[in-house]
Amino acid sequence: MNQTTGIYREPLEEALIKNMVTLTLCVSIIYINGMLVHIFTRHQIFYTNPRYILYIHLVINDIILLTLYILLQALTYNLSGINVSLCIILIVAAVLAKQNNPLTIAVMSVECYVAVCFPLHHSRICSVRRTYVLIALIWLVNSLSILPDVFVTLGTETADFFLSRTTCVRKLVLKNIYLIRKRSISDIVFLVLVWLIVFFAYFKILLAAKAATANAKKAQNTILLHGFQLLLCMLNFLFNLIVRGLVVVFPRRVLFIYFMAAVFIQVLPRLINPIIYGIRDKMFRKYLKRYLLFTDNANIHPLKTQKRSL
Question: What is the number of H-type helices and E-type strands within the chain?
């Protein structure tokens, strides 16, 4: 499309190369995350532990995001565009998955804080049932942030608009000016609240670490990693701002900037979650090695697996 709409086309060969690069990266990361989900579901020691349940929630959201990214990228290169109604559904799913991760990181930080500062009450406060309730609340809270945009669009646009075809970009579909302003304010409030929770947990654990307990020091490092994860999540919210800033500096490299920003901000950070728990965590690493070496017996009963692990 032309400069009036703000969307650009590129040569077919260049587009194919970029699609192949992102497709390869996305499928590779989805496969790695899929391995972790598979390991999680096969061993009771993981799905009875709130910390691993929250972690796998992060991984599943990353799988959803990458799958939608592949789909939206493929549809973006469709010259005729896609149906607006289908586009809205895809955008809602992408926004929910994107916003789920910062809240999940905040909850994981609180769980770490409870484990260090209230170890005797940890099993009661952070039970498996409460963990699933919190995950449901995360989805509900994020639904309340995006569904009003959909309802406003339904109430202000004509039926022809929803039957038309367009390039699937959020600002072209949910385009009400008040929604754009509301989105900016809600994103800022959302991120500030999440950062406050993470900082609170970190400084509380930092005080506990002065007792020089091994668990407190390990938890302190974990919270720092959560902060790094949150920083990467924040880059997603600042994606358009970062791209606009780079376009001002390099106006002739618009398409290249969008491509590189998407790879480094939206795709590659999805490798962080597998690295943090799939490699850093001893328990997950042990079962991941078994899986990769084909020594993970499919007939092992979950209870027996737990006893051996203990």
Answer: 15, 2
Measure the CA–CA gap between 182 and 178, rounded to whole angstroms: 6
| Bridge partner residues of 83 (DSSP) | 165
Beta pairing, strands 82-83 & 165-166 = antiparallel
Q: What is the per-residue pLDDT across 156-179, written as a single tens digit (0 to 9) for each?
A: 888 888 888 887 888 888 887 777
Instruction: Give the integer Cα–Cα distance in Å for 171 and 169.
Output: 6
Give DSSP secondary structure letters for 170-210.
HHHHS--HHHHHHHHHHHHHHHHHHHHHHHHHHHHHHHHHT
Estimate the crossing angle of helix 50-76 against helix 128-156, to 10 degrees: 30
What single-letter DSSP state applies at residue 267? I
What's the predicted TM-score (pTM) here?
A: 0.82
CA–CA separation, 122 and 115 (whole Å): 5
Three-class SS state of 166: strand
Instruction: Write the single-letter amino acid at 168.
Output: C
State the residue for tokens 């799958």.
67
Q: Is 250 helix (H, G, I), strand (E, B) or coil?
A: coil
